[in-house]
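Posted in: Protein Modeling Q&A

I'm a second-year student putting together a small comparison for a lab meeting, and my supervisor asked me to include a predicted structure for Reverse transcriptase domain-containing protein. I've never done this before, so apologies if this is the wrong subforum. The sequence is pasted below exactly as I got it from our records. If anyone can share the structure token output, I'd also love a short note on what stands out.
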Amino acid sequence: MSSLFYKHYWGSVGMDFCEAVVDFFTTGVMHKGFNEANIVLIPKVLNSKKVSQFRPISLCNVVYKVISKIIANKIRQVLPRLICPTQVAFVLGRNIQDNNVLVQEIVHSFKYKKGKEGFFVIKIDLVKAYDKLSWQFIDHVLSSFKALDKFCGFVCQCISTTTFNICLNGGKVGRLIPKCGIRQGDPLSPYLFIWVAEILSRLLEKALDSGRIKGIKLSRYGPRLSHLFFVDDLILVGRATVEEATGFWKCSEKFCDWSGQRINKVKTSIFFSKNTSDEMKHDIIQTLGLNLWETLATWVSRYSVVGRKMLTSILSWTT
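Accepted answer (user: helix_wrangler)
Welcome! Here is the predicted structure, written out as tokens:
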């Protein structure tokens, strides 16, 4: 049932709906039917004929979405006290444009960097970041942050009782029972991912404090910067040495081992400041096995403050 159904017939079903939500928070047990989701294909273009021209979307039960939203709102209130300043998305009081501006400043400074010491930027791409996230790791992270057992139980019920119905031509043709991952479109998912990603942030901060990585400064008296988060996108910045690059990579791989994530080396890329020697570029690329991005344009447009639609309109102007 869609939310429109509940709105239209709230006088008849409202009491039962509220009782169902209250029952979950009283017993801590998710009713089996509440956490079923229907997977349907949405066409990306008109007259879609190929599988690649469709996008799968998971339609959650409205009762579940209300339960999930209540938990997400609770997490939202405490995240600013738990999450480092480098993660700005979905965190109260922070603006994702702050990191957008920082990325552009970094790329701009790389273009005019002088001296013997070069810098690098690595954009980490995780393979299906939401789908591969370990449930056990989520539970461990919540426990390590001293979350109440009852709260951890609520979250565990939300993510581990999921079943997917595959819908085709208006009917259900199969069922999937996942063993890991969180769902796109679930109000709870982005907050859980941000919370879990804080472990990687702390690994990098620990490496920075111990001197295993150095990071960079955009100004003489500015703070030292080692990474930026855009929800599940990660930007690493450091000095262009094999040791520094290896230190960053080890932290990233350790996080992936713990959380069930995997780095997509094909889509993960590295960019160097203007003054980095070709020999050093070659050594780092060979050590990490990454692709080199030669131009600044892609970096700047990827994290531009201007939206993509607005940017397209601006580029089309003739006067």
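A couple of things worth pointing out for your meeting: The first strand starts at residue 36 and ends at 43. The radius of gyration is 23 Å.
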